Q: What sequence folds into this?
């Protein structure tokens, strides 16, 4: 036995102080940090809505209707006297749920399709991709409109419709990533060892091909919220009495000129959330970029 | 000897990272004379490539370069980018390991080189083309006018490397810095490139700084050689001396660990351990953990290069302890 | 003694838009038990394709591959699984042959899981044993590839290849991507393992000096064909094929006093889409005659067992 000691020496340097690490991180990723902080606030509002809200969001008080923002009603009241601030807080729950469900469902459908397509290629690839292309052929909101027209309006159907129109992107992204990973040597090594296709795909291909999907998902999160709000705005998404920001803006649309707060605050909530999620997604993409050596 | 073409004095290049600094080059001194072929040999982490880049001011941020680099009388360190672009190509040019990556796949080979030429000189297309064809002939590329119209992917590895040498020569630099140009080439093509470079140095008085990890190529091509380890030059001198009777234990061990044709089936003396992490070097000599001559002095102090006559330098406290070296060190 | 591996007339052709490419052209050779055979050649000669064919990662066209007397194309299922235990590979690039998201324990353990269904303690014990064979310890088991150097990663790849206790190990340029000082470590390890475990190696390399230090026999390939075979010392000291001679002459000696021995030959590999009608090396060969350009020479066996594919081999008619 060759007595060559390949001593594994990873002599750690003096560990930098936590304060230094945090400061370095924040200054080099300002936008990401802003997005993360804002998003965290939104999540907290959503989770703790019953405690954050100042009033009962569904309590109708005609006496207080259409009051402008004040100390009592931070965002004013709507045409039924309901506190808009509280409704916006509860609306956050709906929006986050939409983001998670739609993105999650789209990935759930698209990932296996992309995996099988990229891994096996040939006829499997052709069939699966043509199938996905059918859904890609429709303009972005047209398909959800068509599906909800068929299934009926409502948030659940809208989410399903959005997921179905969204999955082809993930299928394509996954397929591209899988094709790249498939040519790596460790895949050949596994196959040479007799590892089955199934295990190769699950154990070797997927973990290494997942990054672009994760990045896209984090960026899409915001857009799904926007899409759901858009559907609600045109009347086929969330239906009253659900508290959803797009719906809230739609219901008060006619009152915008005289009572600006009824539309502005729900709209602002959508804007801030989508922006925060986008910044977050950009940051995640940068961090997962393999050229970014400091972060693994 | 006349003024050296390239003079590197006390070069240090640091790359600050979070919480630590990676010292890619720690005090490098070397000289390349006019018409001389200088070899720079080392393994990964030795700092040889960073040294080469520093000579043309190409160290990427956040690298910090300190020390002095003088290229034909021109100070390189601390210059502005605009001043450096004038110098690149004219005073010194560089060729790289992967010629395919140095050329833009969207343009023909001839067009790219002609563009470089026109960037430096105020000449028209026709004159540029003539110069490029001449350069192709100098590097023995077959059918220069046909090659001119080819795209990089249509050329073989050897042809690409010649094309890159041609590109480097178009502005008639005095120094050619070659960063592992033959490492990725087949051995027969490597031999062609070595022969070509020898010819260019002889006929045009071109100085060459040739960076490689291959000791055989150094022996075949270079007049002098500098051996780098962990960011510093550990030995320097005429090729026959350094490879024939090495003073530094690393050079000696490196020579022993390389299989050589004609030696037959033999157990090779490996160097135990591995190259240190340049971000956390132990005190004292960087090679000491792997060295059989290491003493307490080596663990405490980092040896400075000393002269041993005949233009030979070595950075070691125990040069005199070298085992008896006969003339049969090399096969 | 019967050959462990017997390759008989295999070829591999690729159909491209511009025509047919013969990556491997009628290659035959044997590897005996306990023997180290080196397949040598430059890029484009087809040596890596041969390796991939043996592993059944790509299919070959024509010819037969026999392992321990069994035709590899005639087997399936259980027999094929058994075969994969006896035949193993170490790839060239230690940086991409290990799954970056798997721990060492799982990487080396995977063949054991797949072939024997080992789990838990039994699996870990075997993994530890094989890691120990290559000089790595139990403390390395939970780490990821990126925490190791190139030389260590190659050791891990070797440990993985040895996990199923194969009889034949295919080594595809095992030290090419490593630092010079580490190459010696890995070569010594390979030599040591071969002696201790009685393995056979089929080593693919373009580095003649490396081949000389470890191999028993050498097979020289050019343009998809075998041009010369024989014991390493004999072929390298007295090459018979002009290409072998040219190859040897191209290797620079470490002794600067011998720098004039370096000879470069002109020209390059012919285009695979436009192969020369006769001998593939003829366009670059100083000894080529009209016959060489018309009909390709076949591999002839000489009385001393060496084989050469040449009408004008060296050392026969003139020096």
A:
């Amino acid at each position: 036995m060759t007595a060559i000691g390949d001593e594994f020496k990873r002599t750690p340097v003096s560990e930098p102080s936590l304060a230094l690490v945090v400061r370095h991180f924040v200054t080099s990723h300002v936008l990401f940090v802003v997005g993360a902080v804002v998003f965290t606030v939104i999540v907290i509002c959503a989770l703790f809505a019953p405690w954050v809200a100042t009033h009962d969001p569904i309590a109708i008080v005609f006496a207080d209707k259409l009051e402008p923002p004040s100390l009592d009603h931070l965002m004013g009241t709507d045409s039924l006297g309901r506190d808009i601030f509280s409704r916006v807080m509860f609306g956050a729950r709906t929006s986050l749920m939409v983001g998670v469900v739609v993105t999650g469902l789209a990935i759930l459908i698209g990932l296996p399709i992309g995996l099988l397509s990229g891994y096996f290629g040939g006829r499997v690839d052709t069939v699966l991709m043509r199938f996905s292309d059918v859904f890609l052929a429709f303009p972005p909101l047209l398909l959800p409109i068509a599906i909800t027209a068929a299934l009926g309006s409502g948030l659940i159907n809208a989410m399903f419709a959005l997921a179905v129109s969204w999955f082809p992107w993930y299928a394509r992204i996954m397929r591209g990533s899988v094709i790249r990973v498939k040519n790596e040597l460790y895949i050949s090594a596994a196959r040479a060892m007799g590892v089955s296709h199934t295990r190769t795909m699950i154990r070797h291909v997927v973990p290494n091909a997942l990054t672009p999907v994760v990045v896209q998902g984090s960026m899409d999160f915001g857009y799904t919220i926007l899409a759901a709000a858009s559907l609600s705005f045109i009347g086929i998404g969330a239906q009253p009495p659900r508290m959803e920001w797009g719906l809230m803006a739609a219901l008060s649309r006619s009152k915008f000129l005289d009572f600006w707060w009824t539309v502005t605050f729900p709209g602002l909530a959508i804007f801030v959330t989508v922006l925060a999620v986008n910044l977050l997604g950009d940051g995640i993409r940068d961090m997962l970029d393999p050229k970014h050596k400091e972060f693994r | 000897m006349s003024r050296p073409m390239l003079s590197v004095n006390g070069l240090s290049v640091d790359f600050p990272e979070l919480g630590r600094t990676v010292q890619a080059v720690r005090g490098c001194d070397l000289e390349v004379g006019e018409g001389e072929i200088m070899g720079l040999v080392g393994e990964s982490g030795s700092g040889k490539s960073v040294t080469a880049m520093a000579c043309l001011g190409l160290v990427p941020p956040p690298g910090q370069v300190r020390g002095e680099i003088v290229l034909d009388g021109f100070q390189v360190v601390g210059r502005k980018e605009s001043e450096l672009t004038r110098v690149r190509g004219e005073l010194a040019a560089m060729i790289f390991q992967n010629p395919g990556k140095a050329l833009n796949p969207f343009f023909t080979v001839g067009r790219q080189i002609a563009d470089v030429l026109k960037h430096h000189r105020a000449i028209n297309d026709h004159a540029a083309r003539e110069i490029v064809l001449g350069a192709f002939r100098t590097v023995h590329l077959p059918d220069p006018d046909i090659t001119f119209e080819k795209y990089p992917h249509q050329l073989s590895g050897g042809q690409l490397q010649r094309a890159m040498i041609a590109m480097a020569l178009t502005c008639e630099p005095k120094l050619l810095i070659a960063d592992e140009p033959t490492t990725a080439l087949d051995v027969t093509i490597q031999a062609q490139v070595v022969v070509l470079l020898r010819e260019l140095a002889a006929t045009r008085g071109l100085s060459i700084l040739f960076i490689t990890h291959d000791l055989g190529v150094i022996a075949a091509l270079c007049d002098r050689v500098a051996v780098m380890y962990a960011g510093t030059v550990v030995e320097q001198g005429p090729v026959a001396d350094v490879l024939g009777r090495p003073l530094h234990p690393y050079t000696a061990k490196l020579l022993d660990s390389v299989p050589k044709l004609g030696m037959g089936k033999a157990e090779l003396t490996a160097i135990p351990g591995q190259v240190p992490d340049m971000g956390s070097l132990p005190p004292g000599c960087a090679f000491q953990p792997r060295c059989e001559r290491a003493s307490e002095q080596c663990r405490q102090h980092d040896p400075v290069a000393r002269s041993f006559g005949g233009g030979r330098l070595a950075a070691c406290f125990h040069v005199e302890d070298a085992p008896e070296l006969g003339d049969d060190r090399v096969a | 003694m019967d050959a462990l591996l017997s390759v008989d007339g295999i070829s591999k052709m690729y159909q491209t838009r511009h025509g047919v490419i013969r990556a491997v052209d009628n290659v035959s050779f044997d590897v005996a038990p306990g023997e180290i055979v080196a397949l040598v050649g430059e890029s484009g000669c087809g040596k890596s394709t041969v390796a991939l064919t043996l592993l059944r990662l790509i299919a070959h066209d024509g010819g037969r591959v026999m392992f321990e007397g069994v035709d590899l194309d005639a087997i399936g299922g259980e027999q094929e699984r058994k075969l994969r235990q006896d035949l193993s590979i170490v790839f060239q690039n230690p940086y991409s042959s290990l799954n970056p998201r798997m721990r060492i324990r799982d990487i080396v353990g995977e063949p054991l899981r797949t072939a024997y269904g080992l789990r838990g303690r039994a699996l870990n014990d075997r993994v530890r044993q094989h890691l120990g064979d290559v000089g790595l310890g139990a403390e390395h088991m939970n780490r990821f590839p990126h925490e190791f150097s190139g030389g260590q990663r190659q050791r891990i790849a070797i440990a993985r290849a040895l996990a199923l206790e194969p009889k034949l190990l295919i080594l595809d340029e095992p030290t090419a991507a490593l630092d010079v000082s580490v190459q010696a470590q890995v070569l010594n390890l390979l030599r040591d393992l071969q002696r201790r475990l009685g393995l056979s190696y089929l080593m693919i390399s373009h580095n003649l000096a490396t081949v000389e230090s470890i191999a028993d026999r050498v097979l020289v390939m050019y343009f998809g064909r075998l041009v010369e075979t024989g014991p390493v010392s004999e072929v390298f000291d007295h090459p018979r094929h002009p290409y072998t001679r040219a190859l040897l002459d191209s290797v620079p000696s470490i002794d600067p006093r011998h720098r004039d021995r370096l000879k470069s030959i002109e020209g390059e590999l012919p285009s695979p889409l436009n192969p020369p009608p006769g001998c593939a090396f003829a366009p670059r060969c100083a000894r080529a005659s009209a016959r060489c350009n018309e009909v390709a020479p076949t591999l002839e066996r000489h009385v001393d067992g060496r084989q050469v594919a040449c009408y004008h081999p060296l050392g026969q008619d003139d020096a």
